[in-house]
């Protein structure tokens, strides 16, 4: 039966979309080297004084062993899902961006999959043709959800870079949500490719 594969692909895509939206997409961590932090703090204090102040501070730092500190300090950590990013954007009063991310990464994908599922079970009639046209129209936005992921990654990375400067070493790690969302994209593409939109019924 030709509807079995597209229906199965749609159901899997829907199942993957939920954790893809709610699970963490990206985690950014920032660590500071202890010796570098001590050195930077001393230099900042020394900038407020004269040359003698700097010499005294450097000497004190050496005596206390601050320049030989080992290890790192966790200074920054942020984990965000797509839904979490929408909430953060809304809380920061970026309502338009939050709405666009929600629409293109949650509403449209869900709506399209549900319409495709309905299309697979409808008999050939005018309503099915109109639904097919609507699905084809939504398919033009098929790469937007991937673009949304790229925007979230860029947003988080840019936000961290703007706050941390050069003192902190940043590390990014993709979360489970990224892989769920990638799986959703692949199964959604497979479903769209396997559904053949019927031509309009010819009038008698």
UniProtKB/TrEMBL annotation:
UniProt entry keywords in alphabetical sequence: Membrane, Transmembrane, Transmembrane helix
Parts of the chain that traverse the membrane: 95-121, 141-158, 178-197
Superkingdom classification of source: Bacteria
UniProt-recorded name of the protein: Paraquat-inducible protein A
Organism listed in the record: Pseudoalteromonas shioyasakiensis
